[in-house]
Amino acid sequence: MTKTAHASRAVLEDACATAGLDATGAEPIRLAENAIWRLPGGKVARIAQPGQRTTAEREVRVARWLERSHVPVVRALDVQQPITAAGGHPVTFWQELPPHTKGTIADVVKLLKHLHALPKPELDLGYLDPFVRVADRIGAAHTVNDDDRQWLRDRLEDLKNRWASRPRGLPECVVHGDAWVGNVVATEDGPVMLDLERASFGPPEWDLVSTAVKLTTTGAVSAAEYAEFCETYGTDVTEWEGYELLAGARELRMTTYAALHAVGRQEWRAEAQHRVDCLRGRAGAPPWKWKGIM
Q1: Residue 160, φ and ψ in degrees, nearest 5
Q2: pLDDT for 52-105, tens place per residue?
Q3: CA-CA-CA-CA torsion for 60, 65, 68, 71, nearest 10 degrees?
Q4: Stretch 260-280: mean pLDDT, rounded?
Q5: Which of 71, 145, 185, 200 has its CA 20 to 30 A from that of 123?
Q6: In which element (H, E) is residue 155 found?
Q7: pLDDT at 137
Q8: CA 225 – CA 219 distance, rounded (Å)
């Protein structure tokens, strides 16, 4: 077991002891910015980074509200949570998903259309921040040279300034905040929404941009797939005057995520640098065929 896995297991065992849950034989599902562990009895624990307790609390509240609103969503366990465990890590607990496969963009848009139609709940969701933790990621991205890191900081400040005076679009609503195929799974009963840590109130275009950049930036979605996505939802966000701004914010998030994780994973450094090069105009015109790093 790696040093990272050992440290994560220690946090897990501390949280489970506090919550009265059994961590015996727990297995890691995914060890990344958030660590996911499978517990005995069809339960899952999600370990967030220190300082993210408010986000974890909101995630649990949103999951329970969506369940009451009949949106297919991962279910929070009926325990007092989140638990603040060793090292200040907030830990939440969930029901394990039934047998499933990776979601598709058709699954994503089906869930978004349902979510965006819901009335605003009486929950403290906060307002969408497209730039949350981006500055921290840039600061920690030590495999990127100083000149590139400064460019990323300048790009962040430019986008934040433009976000403050962004054009109006569709009526604001509850948004998922990170709506892509990696946060949706397909079950026998239909698609299920996961990873609600960025759920908030804001422009629905932010959720739509996550798929649109797969067409215009990364090339991971075909024109036909994207046309079907737009037909189902009822609008094409790439035609909106604010698209370049939101796409830029999304591209910056994707680039800094790769740069952050490249620090500990040699095999991701080339992709992280490639993304920086693309944003800086060193790699020709998009789409740039970015590769997934997880």
Answers
A1: -60, -40
A2: 999 999 999 999 999 999 999 999 999 999 999 989 999 999 999 999 999 999
A3: -90
A4: 95
A5: 185
A6: helix 146-163
A7: 96
A8: 11
Domain locations in the chain? 3-96, 105-279
How far is residue 231 from each of residues 97, 132, 226, 246, measured CA to CA in Å? 29, 31, 9, 21
Q: Which residue has the tokens 């009926």?
A: 78
pLDDT at 100: 95
Dmax over CA atoms of the chain, in Å, equals 55
Query: From residue 24, how far is each of 3, 16, 166, 292 by CA, in Å?
Result: 19, 10, 50, 32
Rounded Cα distance between 199 and 183, Å, is 12
pLDDT in tens, 12-61: 999 999 999 999 999 999 887 789 999 999 999 999 999 899 999 999 99
Q: Cβ–Cβ contacts within 10 Å for residue 138, how many?
A: 22
What architecture is the 105-279 domain classified under in CATH?
Answer: Alpha-Beta Complex (3.90)
For domain 3-96, say whether CATH 3.30.200.20 is its number: yes
Q: Are 251 and 217 in contact (CB under 8 A)?
A: yes
Q: What is the pLDDT of residue 5?
A: 81
Task: Check: CB of residue 138 under 8 Å from CB of residue 256.
Answer: yes
DSSP, collapsed to helix, strand or coil, labels residue 181 as helix
**C-alpha angle 194/198/201, rounded to 5°?**
115
User: 58-68 b/e with 16+ CB inside 10 Å = b?
Assistant: bbbbbbebbee
Judge whether 3-96 and 105-279 match in fold. Answer: no
